[in-house]
From TrEMBL:
SMART domains linked to this entry: HTH_MARR (SM00347)
Protein name: MarR family transcriptional regulator
Organism this protein belongs to: Clostridium chromiireducens
Keyword set includes Cell membrane: no
Gene: slyA_9
Top-rank lineage group of the source organism: Bacteria
InterPro entries in the cross-refs: ArsR-like_HTH, HTH_MarR-typ, WH-like_DNA-bd_sf, WH_DNA-bd_sf
Alphabetized GO MF terms: DNA binding; DNA-binding transcription factor activity
A Pfam cross-reference name: MarR_2
Length: 135
């Protein structure tokens, strides 16, 4: 019996649980971290882009963005038409980003403990191929 997908899902659950333990005290959760990380990298994007990147439905993103906006971490502005919304991080979020990033990196360091660079490189290549196969 092949359980690659199940094992990947279990790894993601463990990773998210540990990350939540580290960043929740900093006022953020893993579902929000994915959005913040993407916005930090892109500087600004649309809700549609976020949905595609995270692979989640619009209502889910809308709720999470509303919460981030209430927290003063993002700004949403209208785009070319009323349906398009542009999102970017606030100054408050940019100031907090290094702390969130450090917490996330500490989980990654823990997760890859005793795994060689070669093993990690092969793992990343395999994951990329699997994602391309499913897209």
């Amino acid at each position: 019996m092949i359980l690659y997908g199940h094992n990947i899902n279990q790894l993601a659950r463990s990773f998210n649980k540990k990350l939540n333990e580290r960043i929740s005290s900093l006022g953020l959760y893993t579902s929000q971290w994915g959005i913040v990380l993407y916005l930090h990298k892109k500087k600004e994007c649309t809700q549609v882009e976020l949905c595609k990147y995270l692979g989640v439905e619009a209502p889910t993103i809308t709720r999470t963005l509303a919460r981030l906006e209430e927290m003063g971490l993002i700004i949403r502005t209208e785009g070319k038409d009323k349906r398009e919304r542009h999102i970017k991080l606030t100054e408050k979020a940019c100031e907090m980003f290094p702390e969130w990033q450090q917490a996330a990196e500490s989980v990654e360091v823990e997760a890859v403990n005793n795994i060689s660079e070669e093993e990690l490189e092969n793992f990343n290549k395999t994951l990329k191929k699997m994602m391309m196969n499913l897209d």
